[in-house]
Structures are given as structure tokens and as C-alpha cells.
Amino acid sequence: MAFEGLADRLQNTIQKIRGKGKIGEADVKEMMRDVRLALLEADVNFKVVKEFVKKVSERAVGQEVMKSLTPGQQVIKVVKEELTELMGGEQSKIAVANRPPTVIMMVGLQGAGKTTTTGKLANLLRKKYNRNPMLVAADIYRPAAIKQLETLGKQLSMPVFSLGDQVSPVEIAKQAIAKAKEDHNDYVLIDTAGRLHVDEALMDELTQIKELTKPDEIFLVVDAMTGQDAVNVASSFNDLLGLTGVVLTKLDGDTRGGAALSIRSVTNTPIKFVGLGEKLDALEAFHPERMASRILGMGDVLTLIEKAQANVDEEKAKELEKKMRSASFTLDDFLEQLGQVRNMGPLDDLLKMMPGAGKIKGLDKMKIDEKQITHVEAIIQSMTKAEKEHPETINASRRKRIAKGSGRTVPEVNRLLKQFDEMKKMMKQMTGMQQKGKKKGGFKLPFKPF
Ligand SMILES: Nc1nc2c(ncn2[C@@H]2O[C@H](COP(=O)(O)OP(=O)(O)O)[C@@H](O)[C@H]2O)c(=O)[nH]1
Ligand SMILES: [Mg+2]
Known about the structure:
Layout: H1 4-18, H2 25-41, H3 46-60, H4 63-66, H5 71-87, E1 102-107, H6 114-129, E2 133-138, H7 145-156, E3 160-161, H8 169-183, E4 187-192, H9 200-213, E5 217-223, H10 228-241, E6 245-249, H11 258-267, E7 271-275, E8 283-285, H12 288-295, H13 301-311, H14 314-325, H15 331-343, H16 347-352, H17 370-381, H18 385-389, H19 396-406, H20 410-436
Parallel strand pairs: 1-4, 1-5, 2-3, 2-4, 5-6, 6-7
Antiparallel strand pairs: 7-8
Helix pairs in contact: 1-2, 2-3, 3-5, 5-12, 6-7, 8-9, 10-11, 15-17, 17-19, 19-20
Guanosine-5'-diphosphate (GDP) binds at residues 108, 110-116, 194, 221, 249-250, 252-253, 275-278, 282.
């Protein structure tokens, strides 16, 4: 997981000060020494660290902390606020042109993730904003670049504009926009070429594309794993092109996190999105406050809830809840719940977002066995409708048949039926309690996977 080292160190530092009833300047000084080291070790830019520590120190020995009843907590709050500030405010909005299409230029070094991110962004634009993007293959230098974008376009069922590798990128961009107007594509995402280093020829080309297409956004794609280099690259691109945002990729890897913490204050360009994997849905809006919480071990509960909301059908969730309450919950309903939980993504990813999860030793190495879910699904699917509604009628010979049909063993079938029976009993008890207590409105996960 990204930020592991930094998170560990900061959390230890925080632990030391959390419960303190009184805090003196010496305490703050000691803590700031730890914070400073932690940040430097995470490859955060030296100047950024200096400024950060200065700000936190000033606030930590100030009135708001010293006079408060829980100074330890108060210092932590200051650290969190300053960490959030460092990464910038909420910045994940995407521009909309007054007259479509909105043009987004994707720039960055070779291998940073431009092409992949172009696909991811197009996917996000459609899924979240209901847009109809066109992808433009303007990298004519890298042999397989056009093909790569075309493959992504196919996966997404989205149009990819290409004129092969014999037409200049500037001309390609120009014709692409005309075509997008004709075809009513409201977003045009231009995937440009990268080089191994920032070089003049590349910058000239990008400047020309910029002048001609007047993009509404210029997103720099940078690899988080490259640490300080990512910050330098961002600076150069920003000086030459004037970026509107940064997409930090490969944050799913073992990055120390320095880039995420330095880019905003060094380049004055906000991080808008982060890439968290190779798949097309592995792009998330960057939320500085949530990131700060995550680094400080406070968990990323909001993202967790959003994931649940995006993937669990609310109507169905309500219906299931009603069924639970009336105890008419069947194995079919159970099957449905499993499906919804699974839609939220790998279970171990979800676990990591739980507050305090960072403190659980070995969690990162733990793999929740998704096969188990598949097995349970297979067993339930091998039952008849009547059996699913009245599992108490499933006798020994039926169990044998179900085991055979699902490719599982009889003991597994037995175990599932027993668990389901216990679950129903528990539901009755729990819903009984809930009815007594005041029931709050709002969204609830129908099924607790943890
Ligand atoms: N793990 C991970 N891999 C990524 C991410 N974004 C891109 N990649 C991978 O990085 C490699 C280079 O990506 P590509 O889009 O071709 O980079 P480009 O040269 O900038 O266009 C590919 O293997 C991608 O699958 C990410 O967020 N996480
Ligand atoms: Mg590319």
C-alpha cells in the first residue's frame, strides 16, 4: 500500500501525544522532529517539509491548542488540517466548455500512464457524468501507441480517432475536433506522445497542439513511484504549458507518497485524480482531506461509503432490509447480497479503508478468499426455487444432489445451510433490537462483510 512508511511513522508520533493532558513547547518540538523525519523519509520535497513543520509548530504552541481541554487531540487536528492544506482543496471537478466539445489534453513522460489514464478518464466521464467522449490517438511515435488506444476504445465501446502515424499530431488533433463536432461527442481526450525526458521537440509539439485546440484542461499524468522526479517533471510541464491539473498514477504501488504531498505546493497545480491500478475503473477523484485521514490512520470512511452507494442498489437494499425485518429473507436474497458486496470491489481493498486497519498486522498480505463467495453462489444456484425459499425442506438426498450440481461437497452444503439458519436467527434478534431503538433514516449497508 502506498504511504505505508509515512503513515506508520506519523501514526506512532501521534500515538505518543494523543492522550496528553498537557503539552509544552518541548513536546511539540519533539513531535515536530519526528514529523519532519517522517516526511523527508517519504521523499517529500525539502522546502515543503520545512514550511509544513513551521506552520504546524506555530499553530501547535498557539492558543487553540494550549488552552484546549484535549491538547493531544488538538495537535493531531492541526497536523491533519495542514496536511490537507498542503495537498490543496477539493479539486476533482472537470471543466465543461460553453460550446462542446470540451477538449482535454493528456500530457506526460513516456510510461507515466497517459494512454491508460485517457481510457480511465473517458470511462469516468461516461459513468459518472453521462458524457460521450471521443479518444484521439496523437502519439504517432511509439510503435504500439495507436493500437493501445484503439484497444481501450474497443473495451469501452467508444470512438477512437486516428490518422495513422504519418500525419502530424497537430493535424490529427484538428481533424479530431471537427469530427467530434459532427458526431456530437461532448468530450475530446487527446492522448499525446511522451518522451523519456522533458525535451524541446516534444514541448514544441505540445505547445502547437495547445494553441490550435485551446484545451479546456491540460492534465499532466505522472507516475507516483518516481517521487521527487514527478515533482520536477510537473514543474517543467507547468512552466511550459500551464497545467490545469495533475493525475498521479500507480498509487496502488509501493510509493512513499512524497509526490502526492509535494506537487501542489511546488507547482501550484492541484492533483485532480489518482490512478490505483491498471484496470479501466481504477481512477479516483483525489480528496486531500481523505488522503490526510488515511495517512494519519483515521481511515477513509467516506470513500468506503461512496463505493457502497455507487455499487449497491438502494432500492434493493431497502427491500432486503424489509425482508430481514419480516424474517422472510431467503437464500435467493442472500445470493443477491453477495453479488452486491462483490460489486464494490476486492474485499481486501475495502478492508484497508477501514479506520485503524493500517494497524492490523499482516492485513496487507491478507487475501480474502473470493473463491469462497463463488462456492457459496454455486451452491445456492443449484437449489430449486422451493428449496431456496424453504431451506428447512432440504433433506439428506437433496443435499447430495445440490453438492453434485454445484461441484461442491456435502459438508460444504451443510455448513452453508447451518450458517444461513444462524444468520436468520441473528437477524431476528438484531432487527428486534433495532425496532426498539430509534431507527435513523439514511443509507445502510445491508450486509456486513467484515
Ligand atoms: N499499477 C498501475 N499501473 C498503471 C497505472 N496507470 C498506468 N499503469 C501501467 O503503466 C504502464 C504504462 O502506461 P501507459 O498508459 O502505456 O503510459 P504512457 O506511455 O504514458 O501512455 C502500463 O503497463 C499501464 O498498465 C496505475 O494507476 N497503476
Ligand atoms: Mg501512451
